Structures are given as C-alpha cells and as structure tokens.
Automatic annotation (TrEMBL):
Biased composition (Basic and acidic residues): 233-243
Taxonomy of the source species: Eukaryota, Metazoa, Ecdysozoa, Arthropoda, Chelicerata
Keywords: Metal-binding, Nucleus, Repeat, Zinc, Zinc-finger
Compositional bias (Low complexity): 250-262
Name recorded for this polypeptide: Zinc finger protein
Localization, UniProt: Nucleus, Nucleolus
One GO MF term: zinc ion binding
Family to which the UniProt record says this protein belongs: Belongs to the NOA36 family.
Signal peptide (from-to): none
Amino acid sequence: MPKKKTGQRKKAEKQRLRQKEIRTAFVQKPLADHPCNAAMECDKCTRKQKNRAFCYFCSAVQRIPICCQCGKTKCMSKTGDCVVKHAGVFATGIGMVGAICDYCEAWVCHGRKCLTTHACNCPLQEALCAECQRGVWDHGGRVFKCSFCDSHLCEDDQFEHQASCQFLESETLKCQSCNRLGQYSCLRCKVCYCDDHVKRKGFKYERNQPIPCPKCNYDTSITKELSMSIRKHDYGRQSMGRDDSDDEGASGYAGYYSNYNKYNDDEGDDDYNNYSNDSDDDDDEDDDEEEGEDDDEKEEEKPKKENT
C-alpha cells in the first residue's frame, strides 16, 4: 500500500503546479495583451501607435511611460526590488524608467525583475511582418499574429493577410508527394500531405496532439475542417504599391491614397477629353449642317434669276 500524502506534501505539489501555470501563462498570453504591444497615443502629435519610449512620428518623449514588462505607470513599492531606492516617495515619469528594450523600443521600469527578465522574454524579438518584411523599428503600428499560420503581421497588413491566408500553392488539394488526397494541410507552407507522407521516420509523435509539418515543423490541420482554396488573389496594400512616407495611418497608407488620387485624376482627364472631343464633333456637325443649308438656298436662287 502506498503511503498517504501528508498535508505539507499536498500543499507543495499544488504550489508547484501553480508556479508552472504562472510560468506558462506568459507564453500563452495573446500578443495583443502584452504591455510592450499596447496601444499608445503621443502627448504632442496625438497619433496612435504602439507603446514606445519615443514617438515614432515626432520623436517626442512620452510624459507617462509604460513599462513593457509589467505594464505599470507608477512605482508605488516602498520596499520592493527597485534598483533605484525611493523610500516613502512614489516614482513617476522618467524617475521610474530603468532601460529601453532593444526589441520592442519601449521603456522598462527600474524593477530588478523587469530589467533581468524582459530582454529574454520579449515577445517581439522576431516580430518581422510576413507580408512587408518590416520590423518593429520600421513601422509605427502594433504587431499581431495570424490566426491561421501564426505568423507575425503589422497593423497595416493583418486583415489582408488573414483574408487570403487559406490558399494553397498548387492547383489541387492532392499530396505533393503522391496523387492521393491531402488529408493534412500546413497553413504556413501552404502544402497538403496525405496520411503516409505527413509523418517522418525516427520522429516521436505525441498522442492526441496535432502532427507537425515535415517541412517547417508547424502544426498541421485537417483539410476538411478548413476552407482551403487553391486560388490566390493579389490585392490590397502590397499589390497597389507601398509608399514609405508615413502620411496616413500608423505606418503609412499613402499607397492607397496616391493610387486612388491617380485613378481619379486619370478618370477626370478622360472625362474632360471625351467631353471636349464630343463638343468638337458637335461643332463640326453644326458647321456641316449650316454649309448644307447655304448651298440649298443658293441653288433655289439661281432658277429665279434665270426666269427673270
């Protein structure tokens, strides 16, 4: 008979499980809920952007900095783990700041835990947009993840990418290695695999877990549960041409407006040219009719003169 667990042992096991959940909660937290990816409005230019130490548009220092690790704007701990001790005084503004993250370009407070852990756990370390290949320092918007292929997306391309993400780079839904129907699809590689070719030799698969893609190791999904398509439509900001001048939106929608204005100008010129050509044609027709009437009048006057 196994020995009964004592109350102290049960308490220790519960605490161990709780600590494990706390550690995994930070990894499983949605990217939009992290303080380093929070929405911020500049104090001077009042433009919305991602949480930053300096404004992306006017480079102004923010009056109320937000810690990108814990999300606090005021340090009220009197006997905490602060690197700069401030006994009996609340630290606000620049007095609360300890560093700037090299990845997310946001303030880190002067707490020892935030300073020592954020650089290693920053969720925006490899936040390179899958569509425009821009990093956090190259655009002013927030960073999101695609709900299908789990790729990083900037604020300008997130909706366009997700609208066209479920397509394949082939003409059929068949496996790329054989002619059988692909039962598993990788939304990152855009390839289908059958039941035989999705598994690799010498790889240990976990039970009741999604099978990883043999090419990129991303979790595959069952094809019949997805609305997969084999047609690709190029549309949106990338196909219309991107202008890097940050005149519109968080990171520049000038490509939309330039093409739109160009289209309107061309359309207006065509309308004007058509109108001018039509008016010229009408004038020519009127001239021809007047000349024809004059000739008829002259012919009628000739016989009258002959009779007289």
